[in-house]
């Protein structure tokens, strides 16, 4: 279990980076004399790079060793964070953000290393520890960014903090983390990898463009669907495919992926929506509580902390009700949280309960979904299986962002330049349906023995 302790710090570092940059984006913009439009790429290019990197690097981990690829990924992020801190212009900073894309593959590679070293309940608890570290790291990263802004005048010095955190993680990965021993077929399906990378890049780019330029966005999504069809056709005929689609679409994995996608809709798609709803002034828009940024951060902290708790305890609960039972409980809790918002969003105590319930249920899923993926995937495909889990969850959030933006734009209060309560309720209905169907999807989940439910 010593390896888990080192990986916990690595995953804490991952969360720290994800939480640290968002509060200081405006300062980075002013430091670089960038425009609002150009600095928006600070987040976008990292997301696009992550979408391309995760499945490719995860599969290469299965082939060449998960620690080896984790070392490459962590060095890329180290260089990327250094460029963000010290680069003198926006293009170099954005290149640094591209190099930070492999940050998203750290967790899939770590999960593969864990499952190669330990099994059963111990592995489940280890995964819970990793997810909790990631979640708490994001919260502490956000708080650290605010504290550093108050204590350290130089933005460059503050941006050096993530560089130090990643450097420590790199030392652990290079000196204390063991290599996995199971290997996939050493043949590399380069055409498949290229098709997969281009498909993910075009799809995520298209989804991002749907809000800014709907026509171009639709064209890019259509092109992505054509590329996906080509990828499926090619992979089903390949001797050593980049992704084993027959396993992916079996009832060992597709219910987990479908649940991950639908969970991603709520997890990523409602973050900004919850913030704007809580900040809404009732006397102006007829909803919300007029909360300040500091007060809203308390809600965010509550949700995050309960998510960490859920991820930490899911393995213990799974001993009583099975892992599938935990996943069904988590999705059910989130669905109930959305129902509370639909019918009780005017009552402050109801909103608090909803945020707490969604946080705890989300924690069950953040821990349980990757565990279920790793447990039912073939031993030589753990990296790519958990990498796809990560990608479809992110894809769900990207789709939700485009859909929810359109929904809120369709219900606008012109004089207030804000969405109406009907728009928010519509979003919550979508989220309730998305998570409400998950327990029924999970009933179809089976282990590697086709007639045995996941225990």
Q: What topology, given as strand order, has the largest sheet?
A: 1-2
Strand fraction: under 5%
- End-to-end separation: 23 Å
| Unreliably modeled segments | 448-453
* Largest sheet geometry: 2 strands, antiparallel
Q: Rough shape?
A: globular
Number of helical regions? 21
Mean pLDDT: 88
Number of strands: 2
Radius of gyration: 21 Å
Percent of residues in helices comes to over 70%
Q: What is the structural class?
A: mainly alpha
State the order of secondary-structure elements, H for helix, E for strand: HHHHHHHHHHHHHHHHHHHEEHH
Question: Can you describe this structure?
Answer:
With 455 residues, the chain is mainly α. 79% of the residues lie in helices and 1% in strands. The chain is built from 21 helices and two strands. It has helices spanning 2-20, 25-32, 36-39, 41-64, 66-86, 90-99, 106-117, 120-151, 155-175, 190-212, 214-235, 245-248, 254-269, 271-279, 282-285, 293-321, 323-344, 348-376, 382-410, 421-436, 438-442, and strands at 412-413, 418-419. Strands 1-2 form a two-stranded antiparallel ribbon. Strand 1 (412-413) and strand 2 form a beta hairpin. It is globular and about 65 Å long. The two termini are 23 Å apart.
């Amino acid at each position: 279990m010593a390896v888990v302790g080192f990986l916990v710090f690595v995953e804490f570092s991952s969360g720290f980076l994800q939480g640290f940059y968002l509060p200081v984006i405006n300062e980075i913009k002013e430091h670089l004399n960038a425009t609002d439009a150009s600095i928006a790429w600070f987040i976008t290019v990292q997301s696009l790079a992550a979408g391309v990197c995760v499945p490719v690097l995860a599969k290469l981990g299965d082939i060449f060793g998960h620690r080896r690829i984790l070392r490459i990924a962590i060095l890329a992020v180290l260089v990327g964070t250094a460029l963000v801190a010290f680069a003198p212009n926006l293009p170099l900073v954005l290149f640094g953000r591209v190099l930070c894309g492999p940050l998203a593959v750290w967790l899939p590679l770590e999960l593969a290393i864990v499952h190669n070293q330990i099994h059963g309940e111990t592995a489940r608890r280890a995964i819970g520890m990793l997810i909790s570290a990631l979640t708490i790291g994001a919260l502490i990263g956000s708080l650290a960014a605010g504290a550093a802004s108050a204590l350290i005048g130089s933005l460059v010095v503050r941006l050096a903090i993530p560089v130090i955190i990643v450097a420590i993680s790199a030392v652990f990965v290079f000196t204390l983390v063991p290599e996995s021993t199971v290997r996939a077929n050493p043949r590399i399906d380069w055409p498949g990898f290229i098709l997969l990378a281009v498909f993910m890049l075009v799809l995520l780019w298209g989804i991002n463009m749907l809000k800014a330029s709907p026509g171009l966005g639709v064209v890019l999504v259509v092109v992505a669907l054509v590329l996906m069809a080509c990828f499926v056709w090619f992979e089903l005929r390949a001797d050593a495919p980049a992704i084993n689609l027959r396993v992916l679409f079996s009832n060992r994995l597709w219910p987990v992926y479908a649940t991950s996608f639908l969970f991603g809709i709520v997890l990523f798609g409602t973050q900004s929506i919850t913030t704007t709803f809580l900040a809404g002034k009732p006397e102006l828009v007829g909803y919300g509580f007029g909360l300040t940024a500091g007060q809203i951060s308390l809600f965010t902290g509550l949700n995050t902390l309960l998510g960490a708790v859920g991820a930490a305890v899911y393995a213990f609960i799974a001993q009583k009700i099975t892992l599938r039972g935990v996943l069904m409980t988590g999705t059910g809790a989130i669905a109930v949280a959305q129902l509370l918002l639909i019918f009780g969003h005017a009552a402050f105590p109801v909103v608090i309960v909803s945020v707490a319930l969604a946080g705890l249920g989300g924690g069950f899923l953040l821990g349980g979904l990757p565990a279920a993926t790793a447990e039912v995937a073939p031993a030589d495909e753990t990296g790519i299986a958990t990498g796809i889990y990560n990608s479809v969850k992110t894809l769900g959030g990207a789709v939700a962002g485009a859909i929810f933006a359109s929904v809120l734009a369709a219900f606008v209060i012109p004089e207030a330049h804000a969405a109406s309560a009907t728009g928010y309720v519509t979003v919550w209905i979508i989220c309730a349906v998305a998570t409400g169907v998950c327990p029924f999807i999970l009933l179809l989940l089976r282990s590697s023995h086709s007639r045995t439910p996941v225990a």
